[in-house]
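ingest -> validate -> predict -> emit
validate: passed (alphabet ok, no gaps, 485 aa)
predict: started
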Amino acid sequence: MSKFDKDTLFLLFEELQDDSKSLFSCLMVNRLWCETAIPILWRNPWSYGINYGNKNYLFIIIAYSLSDNDKNILTRRGIQLPPISHQSLLFDYLSFCRSFNVNIINNIISTRTTSTFNQVLLRQAFYNLLMIKSSGLKFLDMVSINQQIFYLSGAFHFESLCELKCETSTDSSYFFELAQICQNIQRIIINNTKSNANDGIVRLIEIQENLKYFEWKDNIDDDLTFDLDEKFFLVLEKKANSLKHLIVTFKLTDYYEHLQSILPKLNKLKTLKIDNILLHNEEQLKMSIYHDLEIFNTDYIKIDTAASVIKNSGGHIRKILLKYSYYYYEDEDEDNFDEDFIILIRSIYENCPLIEYLSIPFSASKERFIEFENLLIRCQKLKSILLISSRYGRKLENGDEILKILIRSSSKNLREFRFFDSIKFSLEDLKTFFEKWKGRPAISIITSNLIYRRTDYTNLINKYKNDGVIKEFKYDINLNIFYDN
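emit:
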């Protein structure tokens, strides 16, 4: 029975693995709870919201676990360590660790000594200890790495590595070394911080046998030119059979053509997220077929292109997040926008029965309202919707019709309504909406419009918060209103 209890606790605590506060509380219940929670907490101890500049718990435990010989060497250098003791710790904490975060380890070391040489000694001792103690490492964050770790005695543990975070400014030799050890990394997240290509990263990607998730984010100055070699895209193309999730943010336009050429070949994608990219020729994307697509998220895309991707999907889409589709339309293109919008909405409710999160461009017309209502009626799993109407000063009139449609036709699964700044509701319309929403699950409303900070609006909102009608009414800046997570 006790084993069953421990197994049950473990499954429960697994659900809390991202909630450090709750897990730390579990340590205080009894020994069984403590023994069950510790391995989960120490699987990735770097991930919790600890201020490593002020708290030194990790430093103490790692330093305490060093051999007496290493402690003596470091102490003779004037580095203050926990006193040598033959009394063992309650747990061999580091043996549970399955992750290695270079930046955080460096940060906690820097709080103990300002000497560059001493920091090098501490890093070498800490890295080596973690390599030996941590069997079966799954996660490596090597951002800010400045000391080789792949020649250490326990480096063979990197063979089981599943996830890597890195940056392009890291010396390419580090990636070539890692490529000799790891061939089964499934998630690679790259922060681009330099203006020329890193051949080591290209080689590391090339050697992976089961790459499922790839993320690239440009974080370079706008005035720099970036030499991203075509072979980088060719290597990604070769991962088409395994790649399920592609998230890219390019600042420069030189590589859009390469990206566009490989997108149709990555036909097993479940996530397609393209940020800050204005695709100049979308014909290839229109022809792409993603039967497994679940998340479709782009900044700039023509509405008819988005509709084509949705029509060619396999009915599994849960998130459609379109931000700046209106970019392609001039003010005099209202008729074209109307026609494309209707095609888009129909493509969603005809092909996306599982849709839960949706952001779409929107402005008023009778036919748009009809199709918007059809969408709410047909897509019963919809949890959150964002309407984007801001378009070069064009304002959405009779916005109260949106509130009437939400009351009349949305399912009880709808828990969140977001709207961009040019959609405005009068006090009276909001009051009517909140009154009619009573009896449903509390709704969250998020907007970027400053008008809702006025006293008369905040008084109304607070009233219905107290009545349990509103869960949250939040103002956010224009960018953060979008679904970033």
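The first helix runs from residue 2 to 15.
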